[in-house]
Amino acid sequence: MKILCVDVGTGTQDILLYDSDKEIENCLKLVMPSPTLRVAQRVKAATRDGEGLILTGVMMGGGPSHWAVLDHVRAGHKVYATPEAARTFDDELDKVERMGIRVVSDEEARQLDEEEERTIVLRDFDYAAIQLAFAAFGVELVPDGLALAVFDHGNAPAGYSDRQFRFDYLEQRLRAENRLSAFAHRRGDVPDHLTRLKAVEASAAHFEGEVLLMDTAPAAVLGALLDPMVGGQPQAIVCNVGNFHTLAFRLGPGGIEGVFEHHTGEITRDQLDGFIAKMMSGSLEHREVFETMGHGALMFDRAEMTDRFVAVVGPRRSLMQASRHRPYFAVPLGDMMIAGCFGLLRAYADRFPAQAENILASLHGSIKPAVWE
Predict the structure, then answer these.
(1) Of 251, 297, 298, 308, nearest in space to 271 by CA
(2) Which of 51, 79, 228, 310 could form a disulfide with 46 if both were Cys (CB 3.0 to 4.6 A apart)?
(3) 97 in the Ramachandran plot: left (φ > 0), alpha (ψ -120 to 50) or beta?
(4) Which fold has domain 35-122?
(5) pLDDT tens column, 113-136
(6) Given a cut of 60, is residue 372 above it in pLDDT?
(7) pTM for the whole thing?
């Protein structure tokens, strides 16, 4: 059994080709530029050449690609986008138009393409590109399943805070199912408001096998638990410091005891240390996080932690290097960069029980699973 796991971030897309016939350490891995960085590079080339842009495809993650397109507009060049691609910039298309991006139909986009404007296809999951990367090393990519992760704010109704809407989703999922794989969905079960995940689902429509779609931060935390130093603790706070978002879970014998999420660019190490300390004591309040431009906090268990173990993963984990909590830097199965892929694989075992025995044997070996899984 082979499962292609792709964890799409802002800086990189991390790829694991799981093969149940191999030791997990011998499974093939790639850490490549993220889709948004690849799009940004192509947009910047068009800006240098003074060419107009036609954006087609589906909604994808923003950040670098978003900034590059706005710079292209500010440089006086034309940008056209089909409705699905335009939602990369905002779910409300009138706001996209006000950015200087003209929203056009698919037919209009095809006509513009004939006029030799530069066309860029937007997508977070590019199966063909990944196939080519493996093929360059003589590997034919024919997986039995896909496990894909992106961060999704969700399409908030007009007048509803994006930050609050995202955190309401986290709370709803945890109240329905108190486990990290609550944020993993089988194809066809992705909530309609998770428009970015739905777009990834559409990009995998050609694939005939099983498909899992998951939020990136819980995937990384779930992956971190595969480090025996983390998974062997009776209680722990596991923090994923991503390029754009920082999310921490308090975990204990009863499952998930609390969670908070913030923007990495809006938080200092001292603030993060303070939120973690309050999570340990059980005193952290939603407003403390939300009012400092974070998403929010939720405590299920307000009893003080007896074991104050803190683990950190994520590309911006150096933010916690001098933390007063002296965190442990998790290295699941010897590879921090693939933590999200390992978490995807672990969630796949939950959502597709027929594959669980092989996956769990690969991930745990002789190591006892964490009680919070």
Answers:
(1) 297
(2) 51
(3) alpha
(4) Rossmann fold (3.40.50)
(5) 777 679 999 999 999 999 999 999
(6) no
(7) 0.95
